[in-house]
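Checklist before submission:
- one chain only
- standard amino acids only
- sequence pasted in full

Submission:
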Amino acid sequence: QVQLVESGGGLVQAGGSLRLSCAASGRTFSSYHMGWFRQAPGKERQFVAAISWSGGSTSYADSVKGRFTISRANAKNTVYLQMNSLKPEDTAVYYCAAGVVAGVYAYWGQGTQVNVSS
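Returned file contents:
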């Protein structure tokens, strides 16, 4: 069982940056693949970025490539999402997720709101 708590959301102007954090409980964090997803009002939840258990492999949605960076610190049980050059269309609730199988996420956080003003 893993519990996930996101933080770092807020209001930022277009072109600005935010860093989201996701703190995980439990001793086996390093065994989990981690992902970030987002959901804008009236839209379906969409994939943003993922990182393997070791941190050696990452993947991104085309819409955030070159602007967002996912990373993890297994010693701190934390995964990060550095978001640069933010756009109004990045406004959403951002969720982190964990799973033992790449691409299959069994555990989800409660989300953190990101608002980007134009």
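Reviewer check: The chain has a mean pLDDT of 96.
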